[in-house]
Each structure stands twice: as C-alpha cells, then as structure tokens.
Write a structure and sequence with these properties.
Oligomer: single chain
CATH class of the largest domain: Alpha Beta
Strand order of the largest sheet: 7-2-1-8-9
CATH topology of the largest domain: Malonyl-Coenzyme A Acyl Carrier Protein, domain 2
Distance between the termini: 11 Å
Largest sheet: 5 strands, parallel
Number of strands: 9
Length: 316
C-alpha cells in the first residue's frame, strides 16, 4: 500500500491540541519544549493552556502548528511503519513537510515560520484584509468574480488563493472586496460565503513585499535534498535544488495553494492511503470532497494505531 503524509496549516490549531496523544507519547511534549527553547518563549504552555487569542496570533500560530506537526510525525516514526511514498503540506504545512523530509532543520524552520507570520501580519493593517471561503461555485466562476471585481475597482485586491476541494475555493483580499464578494457570490448560486477567522489575506498579491523579505531570510538557511519526495503548493511538483526550493517557498506566500492538484497528483502516483499528521481533521475533510480518499487523522492514539495496523497488515 502506497501512502502519503499530509501536514495541515493555519486553522487546525486549538488550545489543548494533541493532549490525548501527548498522554501516551512523551515525544509530543518533548517536541514542544524543544521548539520553545529554539524560539525563546514557552510554546508548550501556550499550546496546552492558551490563551486562545495569543495562540491565534499568526506569528504564534505558525511555529505552534509546525511543532505540532513534527510532534505527530515523531510519534508516527515510533511505529516502525514503512516510509511514505511522499509528503505534502497545506500552506504553512509545507514547511512541516520539508522538516519531515530532512530538507530543513526543525530549528531553522521554526525561526522561518515565526518570521513568516510576523511579515504576513505586518503586510496589511489589522482589519484591512482577510479571507473568505466560497462554497458551491466552481473554480472558474470564483475566478471570474474576482477578475470582474478587480477590473472594476482598480487597485483593490480580490483573488482566489486556496483551491481546497471541488466547490470550495478560499478568496483573499481587502475587507471591502470580501464584503462585495459575499453578496455577488450568493447571487451566482454559492451556497455559502464564510469569512474565515484570520486577519491576514494569505497567498495573494498583498503578500508580495513580505515574500521579498522572507526570500532574504531563506538565502541564509541550508537546504538538503529531501529524503522523501515533497509536493509543493505552488505547482504540485517536486523540487530538490536549494534555488528551486527557496523560490517555491517565496512564491507560495503570494500565489495560490493548489491543494486539489496536489492531492490528485499523489493519487495519480498510486497513493491509496493518506495520513493527516497534525492536530485536527481539516485535510481529511477536504480529501473526502476531492475524491472520497481514504484518510486517517493521527491526532489521537486510536488513529495512529489504526494506520499502523493497516500498513503492517499490508506488509505482512
């Protein structure tokens, strides 16, 4: 059985995440402590006790989720299962995948994503931008809506940024543009337009300046050839050379996350089982919509046990 491991991005965090897994696997708490030592603040305390508002600050969320993903990955490695055929991560989760693949060190990745969060938050004044999920329209309809708005409003930004599943596209832009989108998308037949609880319009052109600063930081980080193939958000392709890896991470910040394309590429390679390696079950839900793909979330001990038994049974 070929399987792939997927790492979630922002939106999967919660106070107390991975508590059940941590109770049975000391490596979870150890990973949080290690991350806190690198960052210079108590990541473990924030994850376990909050407050929620602090955990949801982008510059805190990103290293916390990266640490959570690596903690689950380390639990999975304890199971002595065969290695995955490939890795992928949604947005921030791409950095977690690169750590799991050995391309980036854990400590370097923590510092990069903390800076990434800071740059993203500083790129747009609080309240001036955000993201909304459009449910029930196809990609082309959402793209046309955004293009029509930008053509009519000049410098205003409204762009499709996360192609998460058929009939589910996340759009980023200015607050005024998102308000316009809600009425017009429903007028075209969208079932829902849901404003996401984020203050940062990720993966759109408003992040270009942040991406340039991030690119400078990435030049100072050592990249290694991945021990496991990683598919990137930018193009669902694999990149191994440092120049290409840095470019993919830079462009990822202001270009769309092509998640449907990524998951379909993995399925096309013969992957029949997906493991969600992090808190929550967001990616498992998206996979159901993409193609009813068999996905097991590893956030609880029962999920880890189920996945290990399936793979060991296949191997036997």
């Amino acid at each position: 059985m070929k399987y792939a491991v997927l790492f979630p991005g922002q939106g999967s965090q919660s106070v107390g995440m991975l508590a059940g897994l941590a109770a049975e696997h000391p490596v979870v708490e150890q990973t949080f402590q290690e991350a806190g030592a690198v960052l210079g603040w108590d990541l473990g305390k924030l994850v376990t006790k909050g407050p929620e508002a602090e955990l949801n600050r982008t510059e805190r969320t990103q290293p916390a989720l990266l640490a959570a993903g690596i903690a689950v990955w380390r639990v999975w490695q304890e199971q002595s299962a065969p290695p995955p055929a490939a890795l992928a991560g949604h947005s921030l989760g791409e950095y977690t995948a690169l750590v799991a693949a050995g391309t980036l060190s854990f400590s370097d990745a923590l510092k990069i994503v903390e800076l990434r969060g800071q740059l993203m938050q500083e790129a747009v004044p609080a309240g001036a931008g955000g993201m909304s999920a459009v449910i029930g329209l196809d990609d082309a309809a959402v793209e046309k809506l955004c293009a029509d708005y930008m053509k009519a409003h000049g410098s205003e930004v409204l762009e499709p940024v996360n192609y998460n599943a058929p009939g589910q596209v996340v759009v980023a832009g200015s607050s005024a543009a998102l308000k316009w989108l809600e009425g017009h998308a429903k007028g075209l037949g969208a079932r829902m337009v849901v404003r996401l609880p984020v203050s940062v319009p990720s993966h759109c052109s408003l992040m270009k300046m942040a991406a340039l600063t991030l690119a400078g930081r990435l030049t100072k980080v050592e990249f290694h050839n991945p021990a496991i193939p990683v598919l990137h958000n930018l193009d669902a392709g694999q990149h191994t050379q440092p120049v290409a890896l840095r470019a993919a991470l830079r462009e990822q910040l202001y270009k769309p996350v092509r998640w449907v394309q990524t998951v379909e590429a993995l399925a096309g390679q013969g992957v029949t089982l997906f493991l969600e390696c992090g808190p929550g079950k967001v990616l498992a839900g998206l996979n159901k919509r993409i193609g009813k793909l068999h996905t097991i979330a590893l956030e609880e001990p029962a999920g880890v046990q189920e996945a290990a038994q399936q793979l060991k049974g296949q191997a036997a």
